[in-house]
């Protein structure tokens, strides 16, 4: 039964960090003015109430991990740091000019690439530069991604002093053979050291990212990785499915062969073994891929119905407006999305002309806004409802018909104008969202766009 479910539902599908998903943005409606108009509208509606979020992409890494799907630039040359920080601050100053008022910042997330590639001093200049023209909101939440091989005590202390309380470390897997295959040698003691330091300094949420389905990874590797993880007791865990997307240009995923990657049932067993161990060790499942201890704010948000999902993944607070700074970053005004250029040289050149480096985007239609709500409900609460007529759309009967088979398979339950994902259905939440994804249904992808759902 289990095997046939995997065979049936393991298809290529989006991870729904947005709706519409990026390949389905309608670029005909994108223009610079469309973005600045919706940005200003969203800012006026939300800044005084809840503040805004900033995502800052810091793209440099010293060494290429061959599994990585992120936008990064590999270099050992640290003279790249200063010009990049200057460019991000320039981009921020253009935003502040357009907005015309001092933003209230509720959330900052430094992602990458590797934020800890940058020196503590440069990161301090970046954050202080942002707050020259902004104010911290009450209960602000600042977080960053740290690489265990280059996060120093000084990084942690400096960022703590600047208000950061959450850090997530890329762990992936502790097995030497897997680490060799993905070109990421990272001993356990490095992860232990940076975890202890963060705790000693006072960080309230320490996260580890681990991945199942990596090349050469077997069940013993997953068990050993989770045993080691348990000994360090991170507050939250991302347990990602390895996304094999070798068609993305320059992502360096060709360092191993396709047949070295665990697939289908083999991969599913890695996931189920890992998940069982995480439950046994006191971790609760939060949305898709995420686990947290009872004491972590993500679990609290999940319990209170305040969990939100955006391009950064899951978050315990929601703001209507998220501005993405840095090369390749995506911004979300709720009414529209835009993405920055992905190439560093283009990013610098556009900023030199005092323009925002946005190059594509999407203006959400009324239908998009409704579907987006359902997809967020499913991804964050594992249930959704259309009892409020504002959440009804005319294709609902077709969607329910399509989901009938998943109901028969015990993956979801229907009620009067609502549906709930069952415990057995949680791994298939992406498939359930796909039934609501009208844009995907109207136009099936012509080329490979998405990783497999499992
Ligand atoms: C930007 S990276 C991490 C920050 C830092 N550069 C590091 O490597 O420690 C964020 C996380 O994305 C996850 N990730 C990257 N590529 C992935 C892929 N192809 N499939 C699944 N997860 C991936 C990894 O778990 C990684 O830790
Ligand atoms: S996993 Fe992290 S360090 Fe490795 S290439 Fe990707 S962003 Fe850089």
Bound molecules: S-adenosylmethionine, iron/sulfur cluster
Main pleated sheet? 9 strands, mixed
The Rg value, from CA coordinates, equals: 21 Å
Query: Strand sequence of the main sheet, in spatial order?
Result: 9-10-8-7-6-5-4-1-13
What would CATH call the architecture of the largest domain? Alpha-Beta Horseshoe
Task: Kindly report the average pLDDT value.
Answer: 93
Assembly type of the chains comes to single chain
Tell me the strand percentage band.
15-25%
Question: Given the helix and strand composition, which structural class is it?
Answer: alpha/beta
- Count of spatially separate domains: 2
For the record, what CATH class of the largest domain applies?
Alpha Beta
Count the E strands. Answer: 19
What name does the CATH topology of the largest domain carry?
pyruvate-formate lyase- activating enzyme
- CATH homologous superfamily of the largest domain, by name? tm_1862 like domain
Q: Helicity range of the residues?
A: 25-40%
End-to-end separation: 16 Å
Large-scale geometry = globular
The tally of helices reads: 15
Low-confidence parts: none
Description:
By secondary structure, the protein is an alpha/beta fold. It folds into 2 domains: 1-20 and 366-454, Arc Repressor Mutant, subunit A (Orthogonal Bundle), CATH 1.10.10.920; 25-363, pyruvate-formate lyase- activating enzyme (Alpha-Beta Horseshoe), CATH 3.80.30. Helix content is 39%, strand content 21%. It contains 15 helices and 19 strands. The chain has helices at 2-9, 32-50, 81-99, 120-130, 153-161, 176-181, 188-201, 219-232, 264-280, 297-304, 344-352, 366-381, 396-408, 429-436, 438-442; strands at 52-58, 60-61, 73-74, 104-112, 135-146, 164-172, 205-212, 236-241, 284-286, 290-292, 308-310, 313-315, 322-325, 330-332, 336-340, 358-363, 383-385, 412-415, 418-421. It has a 9-stranded mixed β-sheet with strand order 9-10-8-7-6-5-4-1-13, sandwiched between helices. Strands 14-15-16 form a 3-stranded antiparallel β-sheet, with helices on one face. Strand 4 (104-112), helix 4 and strand 5 (135-146) form a beta-alpha-beta unit. It is globular.
